[in-house]
Design brief:
Length: 84
């Protein structure tokens, strides 16, 4: 889908030439072919375990509903995200 966009080519080049330990070299997106590679599931689970933590996430909510309603909704939906 992104093969025709120069921005993705530039981003891919930056990933390839950057330090391998850099955060730039983590999973970004994929398709069925790239996600079917051996070890991909384990890599995605490791990524989730390392980076899916509430202390490094940001959430933005925009709505016509009241602040109180939004706050209650957000708490009910996202309070289970652990702070690792």
């Amino acid at each position: 889908m992104s093969l025709q966009h120069d921005g993705w080519h530039y981003f891919n080049l930056m990933q390839r030439i950057s330090n391998q330990d850099s955060l730039l070299n983590r999973f970004n997106c994929g398709n069925l072919k790239s996600l079917s590679q051996p070890g991909m599931r384990e890599s995605l689970l490791a990524f989730h375990k390392k980076w899916y933590s509430s202390n490094i996430m940001t959430l933005t909510v925009s709505s016509r509903h009241s602040i109180e309603d939004l706050e209650n909704w957000v708490k009910s939906k996202f309070s289970s995200v652990k702070n690792k």
